[in-house]
Amino acid sequence: MRITLLGFFLLLATESAYAEVDFIASIGLHSGGDDVVEVLFTDGSSEDIKAGEFLTLEFGAAWDMGNVEARATGGWKVDSISATNGDLDFSRFTGQLLFLYALDEWRFGGGATYHFNVELDGGGVASVASAEFDDALGYVAEVDYYFSEKAYVGLQYTDIEYDRTTAFGQSPATFDGSSLGIVFGGRW
């Protein structure tokens, strides 16, 4: 008998005495990836935006199915640089589907992530750096510790690449958007 991965998790859900569904929200701080842009300031200092950074906000649902927890979330990931004469924002919308194995207060697992509407948006003198990127599919591994029944802290690794399109006169290029982040989440 052949069983798919989704079928396996559905079997686990029906075998459990209950499947509790909660809303979930998380905030994360991520680091990593290739430099998308470097900004040089008039005082000689510089700042860069990396493809895997910085702040994420996610909302969705989590299902407890015995020893397995499934999460479906949507969110936003952004990094920015501001100056008096211009600013840059590297932003993308995210969707994730994760399956985590529960072992007491710990959750171990992973899944897929899809990033869309990926763009580098510049204003003022930084408008020349604006660029668009193709949607991207990546993978996520995560370890969480529930310090209460409804709140957790976790470590998340994302493996993804962004392909810059030829818009705005820029040549196509691929950027490693992989990152390691700490996430704080809550369920209700």
The CATH architecture can be named as Beta Barrel
- Report the biggest beta sheet as strand number plus sense, adding barrel if it closes: 8 strands, antiparallel, barrel
How far do the termini sit from each other?
A: 38 Å
Mean pLDDT: 89
- Mind telling me the C-alpha Rg? 19 Å
Could you give the order of strands across the largest sheet? 1-4-5-6-7-9-10-13
* Number of E strands: 13
* Envelope shape: elongated
* Fraction of helical residues: under 10%
Low-confidence stretches: none
Put simply, the count of helices is 1
User: How much of the polypeptide forms β-strand, as a percent range?
Assistant: over 45%
Number of domains: 1
